[in-house]
Amino acid sequence: MTENGLLQITLYLAALLLLAKPLGLYMAKVYENRPLFLTRLLGPLEAGLYRFSGVDPEQDMRWQDYAAALLWFNLFSGLAVFFLQILQAWLPLNPQHLANVSFDSAFNTAVSFATNTNWQGYSGETTMSYLTQMLGLGVQNFVSAATGMAVLIALVRGFQRTHAAGIGNFWTDLTRGVLYILLPLSFVFALVLVGQGVVQTFKPYQSIPLVEQVSSAATAPAEQTTQTIAIGPAASQIAIKQLGTNGGGFFNANSAHPFENPTPLSNFLEMLAILLIPAALCHTFGAMVGNPRQGWAILAAMTMVFVSLLFVTWGSEQSGNPALASLGVEQSVSVNQAGGNMEGKETRFGIVNSAIWATATGAASNGSVNSMHDSYTPLGGMIPMWLIQLGEVIFGGVGSGLYGMLVFALVAVFVAGLMIGRTPEYLGKKIEAFEMKMASIIILIPAFLILGGTALAVIVDAGKSAIANPGAHGFSEILYAFSSAAGNNGSAFAGLGANTPFYNTALGISMLAGRYGIIIPVLAIAGSLAAKKTVPTTIGTLPTDTPLFAMLLIGTVLLVGALTFVPALALGPVIEHLIMNGTH
Amino acid sequence: MTPTQHKQPLFSWQILLAALGDTFLKLAPRQQWKNPVMFVVYTGSLLTTGLWLWGLFNGGDDSASFMLGVTFWLWFTVLFANFAESVAEGRSKAQAAALRSAKRDIVAKKLDEPRYNAPYVKVTSPALRKGDLVLIEAGDFVPADGEVIEGVASVDESAITGESAPVIRESGGDFSSVTGGTRVLSDWLMVRVTANPGEAFLDRMIAMVESATRQKTPNEIALTILLVALTLIFLLTTVTLLPFSIYSVETAKSGTPVSITVLVALLVCLIPTTIGGLLSAIGVAGIGRMMQKNVIATSGRAIEAAGDVDVLLLDKTGTITLGNRQASAFLPIGEITEKELADTAQLATLADETPEGRSIIILAKQKFNIRERKIHELGATFIAFSAQTRMSGVNIGERQIRKGAADAIRRFVEAQHAKFPPEAMRLADIVARHGSTPLLVADGGRVLGVIELKDTVKGGIKERFGELRRMGIKTIMITGDNRLTAAAIAAEAGVDDFLAEATPEAKLKLIREQQAEGRLVAMTGDGTNDAPALAQADVAVAMNSGTQAAKEAGNMVDLDSNPTKLIEIVETGKQMLMTRGALTTFSLANDLAKYFAIVPAAFASTYPALGALNIMRLDSPSSAILSAVIFNALIIVALIPLALKGVKYRPQNAEALLRNNLLIYGGGGVIVPFVGIKLIDLGLTALSF
Amino acid sequence: MVFNPIKPALLMLMYFSALTGIIYPLIVTFSAQAFLPRQANGSLIIDDNNQALGSELIGQAFSRPEYFWGRPSATSPHPYNAGASSGANQGPANPALLEAVQTRIKALRNADPKNTKPIPVDLVTASASGLDPDISPAAAVFQIERIAAARHLPVPKVQELVKRYTEPRLWRILGEPRVNVLKLNLALDQRLK
Question: What stretches pass through the bilayer (chain B) (predicted)?
């Protein structure tokens, strides 16, 4: 724990919390259809879109209609990405003449981007044409994020409304999310990133003669004299990839790639972008339910878990690899080096920025990486994995994180409400059997996908053969993969050779079930809440905007997460940690 | 009507013995299936039994003694849960039986034939049946709801309707029905009983405590869903441990995969058996606690709703005030002194045995030390109150002393060709405007003054309302009085709001308004005209003394007919929910320690390094697992008293209540099993298991 | 009912595809190419002959003793393949990692047998992208004597060069201090403008 490290973390959190509030309030205005300064500029685009697609923006949808609209839109989205991939060789904007993508990989990627997971089974620069990146993946980065936000807003309306049949209009929520939130932010952010060195061009890959034309001896099997540098329209995509908790990189190495994340400043901004909208949405929630403190309580709970776990990752990575210490490798921190476990990390980011990113990306279901989680120390790598397993609710995906957290709030309120002798209520809505049923489904689905998927993979050869690292670490690779897919995160212990029919299919199904298996019950809760009366708050009501409630929420999330995954984690990172530190 | 409390010790030998037998009967799969959590334990027990038997002949995947030990304790877990339920049922049934046999205090004069002076037998009110004829004379309580078939009488219904003034009941017409628990003040009535006393409720209540017919309450259903979800999660966690373990053995190249017995043990320890095993006992005990308070609930849902009540509608008379008005001042007119008025008033009241009358005599004594005089010593004749004259008084020789309502006295005075002084009328008006009742006193043709009869707020009621306020419950006083009086009494009693000049329609409207704002409303009622409001209210407590219509409309009956009991009902409802919440939290918090006990033990052969997690330093893997299973079973038994008694409830705001309970049951739930499992492990080791 | 949203769903997707998939990246590209052409095209280092020497953001492989060596790269089929970025993804307890580290240590020791100082960790561990352009100042300092000897330069001169090419943290706070290996080596070769 260095002073500079603390300073960087503090600066990061301060910037995050400072920016979250104005953005959150702005987003509340967007979704409540209040006039904005951007309306004059983008209003005609919005109105044109509704005319073009024959949508009545005034229509108030029942939850079933909302879900149907969402599902059709996402289905067509997935199909579009699928067909772009399997046809890309014959389509324009493919200067590298990349081949058509295999069916299983195309399925996996289509699902991955439609579900906001952005798991990369493929390697960007060697697989996807510029057209596929832009028109397929880039578009999904926007609309899948806007979909998640729309579902959250629908749920918030459930709390807002009384005796209402509808929960809003999916088309307007989707449109406004893209037009007034994601697009303007991405545009500005993309240009800032270009300024830092992120590429944005349609030129083909560059070939440049190497400085060292003849290497010494055995390092390179075939002598290289030129370096082919992959470039492309990356900045526009990276901006939204960070902001929309997408995480699917333009390049294989994701945000560790110097063209995706060239400088400490670009890194700082990209890290900020990971958590910005999820954090801001807490304020949106507070504003929309008419009590900013409700939003604060949830944001505080998220932040506390995030910071505590960040320190675990940081501490664990900074302490380095005990195996290397015995080889005479200098791993201690000094003014001249970051030290610690530098395997799979970039020099410009060192330990602290890698740890912040890993924790944030695990927390936020972003899934982008600026270092390779597979090479993390067992405990350092366990943290992002566990954050995913907690249900992607510590910040979580845009929209999805908060709606997941609100479901946990329902569970917390349920048990706590009983403890104070009342039928539990949250924000004036009584939590009854239907809500508990839906909440149970929401908690069960990821647990089933993660544990069931891992169990399947560790008994079939198709699962085991993809493992890159031996021992308990291999188990962690598979556990991480299914956690990432089910939690719609997208990051990986990337050693796992998951671009196989088995994993493409199994993880694809996990992503689908992990996304829509949760969205549908969340919308059902929204519908059920909207139809209920609103119970007035009294002194006998459990207050949900206090530190005690934030602690209770943290306790619930951690308890459910721990109880579900402790045995699995014990056989993965925990035992790896014990063995690694025991034998050295 | 003296309240009878059916207090009984937490356990009695009869109940325990009966419960013991029941415990085994409940092993039928159909019974077990009703409780999903315990059904998993049940299935697990069957599985390990099978594995043990199989292992005896074919060699199992674990040592036979270990498998037997686990199996044994798993069955105990099931039996303990059954036992908890049986005990709760037994207690409630015993309480119900006690209630059924309890004699009511009202003695009825049951007539042999419908004639005023026909011979009668004295019977207690529960013995009355529909169609029986009873004679009710001045001073008698009406034993049951009925219809007047002969006679005219003034009846004091204040304890029930809140109306202070006596009402007239006569045969035929609109005023022919009388209500159980009211009191005939003058004259007599012959009444045909129209309803059987509250036995129907008792029967329904007894049905509720018997598991065969018991319906789960909404909240119980919601909680069960959560418990099932947790059970499924843990099922998932343990089932997948088998492939995980097989893979780990493969990759670590040491040890053997975890045995099914250990997995079942882990599963049973993790699933919320503590709350699952005690859930129905808590519900049954809640009904039992209501019965202990002499309240019969017609559904568990009603008890649960009682915990949620936001608004209490309380009748002024009988609940907030003592029900009978008390003399508070003598207001003379003209040159008459206060003492003269008091003296005359006392004379007029000597034979009046009503509480109001007594209060006049007491006030006269307090203020002027006027000694009580014997009516026969004065040679006076007592003129009783009658519905026709609406006055009472005495005749001493020539003197005709009367007291009564203003218009009655006016008629009396004017009948003697005297002038009724306007000052008397004005004074009576002033008193009425203060919310008190004016009683005029006349000596012959001369009006002496006014006695002010005031409602007296019950002692301690203000504090109770304060408690309710801290619980977040709003109190609304319902009264037939005018606004001024109502406001004065509301302020004195410390209620939050009041409804004055209440009509049944206004009451119903008030309830609907409160409900429209999302509040849950509780009320007590007894009159037939209360029925619509009772039906509308979420928690409706009918007085046992009330009409059959009221009882049908309500969802609880208070055998003591004590309206203040609503407050206790609310507390009992809260207690029931709190007990569920506390045990759920406790159950889940327990899992932490169980993981620390079982996970290192289960994989000891593959990963000895996991021993670092054995922070309790348990002796061996098998003793660790067995200790956890035993702890899990014993904790159910240990918590039976808590489930039956309920978590202690103190009126506090929600935040403080939650903090305390989280600390006790959450924090305790984390710590207790660490200690318990360690102790059991030490014991097992000592016994060299 | 269920099929009602099909038409708007298709049309919406078309509209958003055009807006966010074509118009948005085109506008960003035009703006970037207009205002930030150097960065937008890969931050190439151009020499006096207008010849690209490499990208200052993308590392190159160096294995000769007279050059500063960068981070080990795990790209395939050869290190620093900027067409296929990748990390090694070796777990911390993977014997293959220890083997690889030992090989790298041996290479460093063989290239400069006199240097017995502990080796900075970033010199023997693979970077995340396989294209890391930087090493830590400690890693640069560690190699100074070898370069000085191989190039027959006085040590202080190389030290001075390393110092010049050491980039501190941004605002003394963000990131880590680092040395751009390509630029440092180009400076050694005196090919930098």
Answer: 37-57, 63-84, 221-246, 258-284, 595-616, 622-642, 662-680
- Helix H or strand E segment including A20: helix A3-31
Question: Could you report the predicted ipTM of this complex, rounded to two decimals?
Answer: 0.94
Angle at B295 between CA B291 and CA B297, to 5 degrees: 90
Whether cis (ω within 30° of 0) applies to the bond prior to A384 is no
- DSSP string covering A182-232: IHHHHHHHHHHHHHHT--B--SPPEEEE-SS-S--GGG-SS---EEEE---
Which among B96, B83, B46 has a CA at the least distance from the CA of B298?
B96
Helix/strand/coil for C64: coil
CA distance A380 to chain C (A): 11
User: Is A184 touching C (CB cutoff 8 A)?
Assistant: no
Which of C66, C104, C83, C184 is closest to C136 using CA atoms?
C184
| Region of residue A168 (left: phi > 0; alpha: psi -120 to 50; beta: else) | left
Can B681 be counted among the known catalytic residues?
no
Chain B residues within an 8 Å CB radius of A456: 243
State the best of A441, A571, A581 to mutate against chain B, taking most chain B CBs within 10 Å: A571
Q: Which residue has the higher pLDDT, B535 or A59?
A: A59
Tokens of A252: 């294989």
d(CA B241, CA B598): 12
What residues in chain B have per-residue pLDDT under 50?
A: 1-7, 102-104, 160, 162, 212
Query: In this predicted structure, what is the pLDDT of residue A216?
Result: 59
Burial class (CB in 10 A: 0-12, 13-18, 19+), B71: buried
Give the strand pairing for C178-180 and C134-135: antiparallel
Task: Fill in the amino acid letter for A81.
Answer: V
pLDDT in tens, A26-52: 999 999 988 888 888 888 888 888 988
Instruction: Residue A362: name the closest of A237, A493, A511, A186 by CA.
Output: A493
- Decide: pTM greater than 0.80: yes
The shortest C-alpha distance from A138 to chain C (Å) reads 6
Chains with 3 or more CB pairs under 8 A to chain A: B, C
Largest CA distance in chain C: 82
Record: contact A570-B603, CB cut-off 8 A: yes
Closest residue to A440, CB basis, from B226, B472, B591: B226
Contacting residues for A465 by C-beta, under 8 A, at least 6 apart: A497
Kindly state the helix (H) or strand (E) to which residue C77 belongs, with its residue range. none
Residues 6 or more apart whose CB falls under 8 angstroms from that of A401 comprise A245, A278, A281, A302, A364, A365, A392, A393, A394, A395
Residue pLDDT, tens place only, B453-508: 877 777 777 888 887 787 778 888 887 766 777 787 788 888 888 888 777 788 88
Q: pLDDT digits over B301-315, tens only? A: 788 888 888 888 887
**Spatial separation of the C-alpha atoms in residues B302 and B579, rounded to whole Å:** 17
> What letter does residue C21 receive in the DSSP assignment?
I
Q: Is residue C105 within 8 Å of residue A484, measured between CB atoms?
A: no
Q: Parse chain A into domains and list their residue ranges.
A: 20-208+230-277
Alpha carbons A28 and A289: distance in angstroms, whole number? 10
Q: Which amino acid is at C94?
A: N
Chains B and A touch (3+ CB pairs under 8 A): yes
How far is it, in rounded angstroms, from Cα B126 to Cα B455? 33
Backbone angles phi, psi at B520, to 5 degrees: -100, 130
